[in-house]
Amino acid sequence: MSRPPKLLAISSPGGHWIQLTRLCQGLEGRYTLVYALPSALFGSPKMADGQKVYSVLDVSADDKWRLVPCALQVLYILLKERPRAILSTGAAPGAIAIWLGSLLGIRTIWVDSIANVKQLSRAGKLAQKRADVFLTQWEHLSNGQTILYKGAVL
């Protein structure tokens, strides 16, 4: 019996992480999940349920100098794990993964945070340029073509 394809699930802490884990609950039977999360959330490379978790540096618009180390960490994970797809709910570590994944030919899916009611997030705007599938959780932010609305996660 063959193993299910790998899916890299990556996000920032807080609401992004909550939304990501809720999305992943429905994918566990179809994919081997590999998580990448800011090191502030997890100190060990394995979760209690046996899921593989990598630690990455969290970055934001306020500390751009950390983008390069985070990108190198994400690139290492992508090259080591070779996921079939990347799923992210944001923010910067997810946008980095979407960009690198698209350059490596990996299918990419971005779900913009439900917190962004009036406009897409900054990271989402960057990810939109490279994501194969871009979803918003607010119907009025969808354009019906490149920005899709399929409902809310929370």
Automatic annotation (TrEMBL):
Compartments where found: Endoplasmic reticulum membrane
Subcellular location, principal: endoplasmic reticulum
InterPro entries tied to this protein: Oligosacch_biosynth_Alg14
Domain of life of the native organism: Bacteria
Membrane topology: Single-pass membrane protein
GO biological process: dolichol-linked oligosaccharide biosynthetic process
GO molecular function: N-acetylglucosaminyldiphosphodolichol N-acetylglucosaminyltransferase activity
The keyword Transmembrane appears for this protein: yes
Pfam families xrefs: Alg14
Assigned keywords, A-Z: Endoplasmic reticulum, Membrane, Transmembrane, Transmembrane helix
Protein name: Oligosaccharide biosynthesis protein Alg14
Organism: Candidatus Thiothrix singaporensis
